[in-house]
């Protein structure tokens, strides 16, 4: 094992693989959570559109949507959208626009339960309501279009992640190659660690190599982030 304390010849850099893998796992988990939240938002918009087409309106619309979310909470745990639906139901029962309740929710305790993408979702949903109220456009049609737009965003994100999977894997491989080279030298009995740390020329070579490796890692990450933003 590389992490055993008695492994005298294993360079400290070999342990870099562990935090790197943990970071990658964290990113994957974060993406999976974000994607699940986006799919849940699409489901909610489609539910609202279907209820509108079925003749629901006013507080009844938000009440039935809320009932469905509460039932899901019993199986899947707390639903962050429930608070916003409660605000919408209360506003509609008073004859007020739910979009105003959404804006108040962004500044209150409801915002603490919602992630930034979910907050943007409710802002956009409120914009759909405002547009329907001011233009007279059917709200159900707007919500169907909004759900389709959310699904398009999900598909585009999946395509971007697939396209960037190769460059990310190459970046990780190139970062690990110097460490693998040291391990290979140790297995061959060359003692590269002693060469690098035992003389000034070795110190210079090690410092230059580490600096170039860090620069390459930063540049690759910069290109990946730029590609993600442009996508």
Attribute tags:
elongated; 231 residues
Question: What can you tell me about this protein's structure?
Answer:
With 231 residues, the protein is mainly α. The protein has two domains: 39-137, no CATH class; 159-230. Helices cover 82% and strands 0% of the residues. It is built from nine helices and no strands. It has helices at residues 17-53, 58-76, 81-93, 98-107, 110-113, 116-135, 139-187, 192-197, 200-230. The chain starts with 16 loop residues before the first helix and ends with a helix. The model is unreliable at 1-24 (pLDDT under 50).
Question: Considering DSSP H and I runs of 4 or more, what fraction of the residues is helical?
Answer: over 70%
Low-confidence runs: 1-24
Largest sheet: none
Structural class computed from helices and strand pairing: mainly alpha
Number of helices: 9
How many E strands? Answer: 0
What is the succession of H and E elements?
HHHHHHHHH
What's the topology here?
Elements: H1 17-53, H2 58-76, H3 81-93, H4 98-107, H5 110-113, H6 116-135, H7 139-187, H8 192-197, H9 200-230
